[in-house]
Amino acid sequence: MYENSRFSNSSLGLLVVYASDMERSATFYRSLGLCFERHTHPPCGDHFASIGDGCVFEICQLRKGQTAIGPMTFGFHVTSVDQAVIEAKENGGTVRREPHLAAWGRSASVIDPDGHHVLLMEKPAELA
To answer: Is the dihedral of CA 121, 122, 123, 124 positive or negative?
Structure first.
């Protein structure tokens, strides 16, 4: 049970991933079902943005001499964990943990082209 706090109605609104190859990372995340638009504004300049369920997921290009914070760990709900793992492997990802049944449902873990850990969680049928 989560404790009540003044942030109990808060939700994640933005997640920014810095990539060594922005195009390669966009291809990887498209394989997991994300759709991107090109945006240009500070602090990233030209970047990819995916907007869904009230959260913006951005992929920004690492600049020469810039180091990324990470690796980070985050997750996405997918329709099929098994298919998402296949797509991730075909698009530059590596499997960290094969599909399995976890306490929260069927899931797997992959590593994106820049080393970020991505948890894939299958949507329950009533939410799909």
So the answer is: negative
How far apart CA 67 and CA 59 sit, in angstroms, is: 14
Domains identified in the chain, total number: 1
DSSP string, 4-22: P-TTTT----EEEEEESSH
The boundaries of the domain holding residue 18 are 14-63+70-122
Say how far residue 16 (Cα) sits from the centre of its chain: 9
pLDDT tens by residue, 20-67:
999 999 999 999 999 999 999 888 889 999 998 889 999 999 988 887
CB 67 within 8 A of CB 79: no
AA letter at 17:
V
Which CATH number covers residue 22? 3.10.180.10
Query: Within 13 Å, how many C-alpha atoms sit on residue 5's CB side?
Result: 6
